[in-house]
Amino acid sequence: MQGMDHDAPQGLAVSADGYTLVPTDTTLSPGTFAPFAFKVIGKDGKPLKTYTPLHDKDLHFIVVRRDMAGYQHLHPTRAASGTWSIPLGVASAGVYKAFASFQPAGQPMPMPITLAVDLMASGQFSAVPLPKPAVTAAVDDFKVRMAGAVIVGGSALTFVVTRSGTPVELQPYLGAYGHLVALRVGDLAYLHVHPEAMSGDPGPLAGGRISFHAPVPTAGQYRLFLDFKTADVVHTAEFTVVARPAR
Ligand SMILES: [Cu+2]
CB of 151 within 8 A of CB of 246? Predict the structure, then answer.
């Protein structure tokens, strides 16, 4: 899959490939949930209503603050009109970036499109420094260890999820045993990451190990957000990584 043009960074524009992300409103009130709605306007000027599911969903909606804090991976619902909506809340003030990632029906596979728009949450903003690069992350009761090098052009990454030192049983989530989003530090370019094995078998996976191909386009820092599901709950482990140039 490496080197294909759909591996190019996405999520840097509100409009690309003839599709435009149009939110109803771009302001958020920190600390409260409010309906958030948007449309994907197609080449014909009308809301896109037909999608090809990608990782089990017609559309993936990612919200993160510009300093990489407050990551959320959501799945809005689509009305017959084509309008997507979801209750959306953010904990604190700042500028957030909202990504919509989808595959229009009838387009050649695989061609996911990721569009993005900034959302503004008023209030006192306190920037969170980017955590230092590390190969382990703690989330809830779990520890996640990352192995593998991040190299421009193609990276093979493996994550092992443990609890109290014992690998956990992973449940299928979004067509695989985990879902990984990589955002470039500086501009929040969105990388399309491929799970190495899809969960063709719908049963749980022992050993807590998941692998991905992450085709990073440039050297430098990225923030990785790994969603995994165990005991019916989804958790997100976050890592800062440094991509090295290809040799
Ligand atoms: Cu999703």
Answer: yes
